[in-house]
Every structure is written in C-alpha cells, then in structure tokens.
C-alpha cells in the first residue's frame, strides 16, 4: 500500500504553496513583496494561497508600520513547520519508491 | 529565485496522480484494480485522474481480454516517465531548499 499518499497534506497540493512554505521554513518571516519576487508569483495568486495557508493554521500574518509605511509579513507557524516536514518526508518516500 | 517551482509539473499537483505515476514508474503496466488497491483510491477518483494523465500523454491505456474477461491496464509513456523524473528532481530541490 502506498502509505506516503495518506501522509501527503492536501494543503500543500499546489506548487506556489510548496514555494511559500519552502521560503518560510528557512526564514523567520518574509514580507509579501519578498515572497512575490522570490516565487515569481502574481499578487492575486500569492494572496489567495497565503490566505488558504493561514486558514489551515500553517502560516501567520503580522501587519505593522515600517516608518510610515504599512508592512505585512508572514511566518510559518509551529504547526505549519511540523506539517510541512511531514509532507516533505512523504515526498521523499515517493521519490525513493519511484526509482 | 525558487526555480524548482517552474520545474514542478501541474499535471502531478495531486496526491493520487503522484501515487499513480509512482506505481507505474516501477512496473511495466498495472491494471485498474491493482492501482485501486495499492493506492486506496475510489473507482471514480482513480478513473478521473487516470483520464487526466492520459490526456497529457503521460499514461497510456490498453484494453484486452484475459480469458473471457475484459481487462484494462495502464502504463507510463516515455514522455510520462521523463516528465515525472523531472518533477521528482524539482521536489528534491524543494526538500533540500527547505531544510
């Protein structure tokens, strides 16, 4: 039985979401523009996938002012980091099982 | 820039499709029931994802009789094998970049 399928998280079943988590796993937090540039995403696409990840509790958002300018930054939650690690090990099992 | 995103294939952006390809990468061909049992999938879900993979040219289907009984078997095409290998290496880059 291909167990890895049941360990793959539906919340990460999208390239952009994989990209978002991959950036947030290796940084404390990242603001919208940094995510947009590093992932080559459009505003709308990035905003909708960030919202979906927030809804699942895997990403948190913080709004603050940097000088006079409003700034929105995103971080992976502890729950998000754990879920993504689990997803990555299921992907590793997939890769090993497909060689 | 997170290049791996652009090397991830949208056709494989689904757990069951990953499972189908993973089975077909290590077998010459597999019939519908074998795929259904080894992936724990429902008839409808499996049929629709197999059809989608056929449409992209990544999977081929063969209908024949085994004794008196009709049998439908599926195989990964050469194109499908190449595309899935490329997808897996992009996933490996994702995993490495998220540690």
TrEMBL record, chains A, B:
Residues 16-95 form the Winged helix DNA-binding domain. Signal peptide: none annotated. Coiled coil: none annotated. SUPFAM superfamilies: Winged helix' DNA-binding domain. Gene3D superfamilies: Winged helix-like DNA-binding domain superfamily/Winged helix DNA-binding domain (1.10.10.10). This is Transcriptional regulator. It comes from Fulvitalea axinellae.
